[in-house]
Amino acid sequence: MKFLAFALETNRWKKINGDYRMKKYLGGCHCGKVQYEVELNLKNAISCNCSICMKRGSLLDFIPESQFKLLCGENELQDYLFNKKLIHHYFCKNCGILSFGKGIAPGGTKEVVAINLRCLEGINLKTITIKEYDGKSR
Ligand SMILES: [Zn+2]
């Protein structure tokens, strides 16, 4: 299964289990130039072993664009594209931290935002189920 498809499947799973309580969180880079607000259910995170996720160490969750609001730092974002150039890996030009990325959902035109959960404020990673995704062999 492709990465984004897997991510969306994970999100559907949350809904099916009736635990789809959304909460607002603030997130951003390290220096604070990039800040955003997201609405999500912190239940699962995806840990991927592909070339970039491995080096970055990010824990990801995927949400529709409508649940994401960039508060500041649009001009501080540097886009990094590689491989099939489908996912925009946005990182802060000043501190280098990637707090989110964007891509198009499989078979559609809908934009999906990948949130690096490590960049959210006031969360406890120990309460989140980590799902492994084998991006390396795809
Ligand atoms: Zn920064």
Structural summary, described in words:
The chain is mainly beta. A five-stranded antiparallel sheet has the order 4-9-8-7-6, with helices on one face. The longest helix has 14 residues, at 3-16. The chain has two helices and ten strands; from the N terminus they run H-E-E-E-H-E-E-E-E-E-E-E. It has a single domain (3-18, 25-133), classed as Metal Binding Protein, Guanine Nucleotide Exchange Factor, Chain A (Beta Complex). The structure holds zinc ion. The site of zinc ion has 9 residues, from loops.
In the CATH hierarchy, what is the class? Mainly Beta
In terms of DSSP E residues, the strand content is 35-45%
Q: Note the overall shape.
A: globular
The small molecules bound here are: zinc ion
Strand order of the largest sheet: 4-9-8-7-6
Helical coverage, percent range? 10-25%
Architecture, according to CATH?
Beta Complex
Domain CENP-V/GFA: 25-134
Family: Belongs to the Gfa family.
InterPro entries: CENP-V-like (IPR052355), CENP-V/GFA (IPR006913), Mss4-like_sf (IPR011057)
Protein name: GFA family protein
SSE topology sketch:
Elements: H1 3-16, E1 23-28, E2 35-40, E3 44-48, H2 51-56, E4 60-64, E5 68-72, E6 77-80, E7 88-92, E8 100-104, E9 111-116, E10 129-133
Parallel strand pairs: 3-10
Antiparallel strand pairs: 1-2, 2-5, 4-9, 6-7, 7-8, 8-9
The structure holds zinc ion (ZN).
Zinc ion (ZN) is lined by residues 29-31, 33-34, 92, 94-95, 97.
Key phrases:
138 residues; mainly beta; Metal Binding Protein, Guanine Nucleotide Exchange Factor, Chain A; 14% helix; globular; binds zinc ion
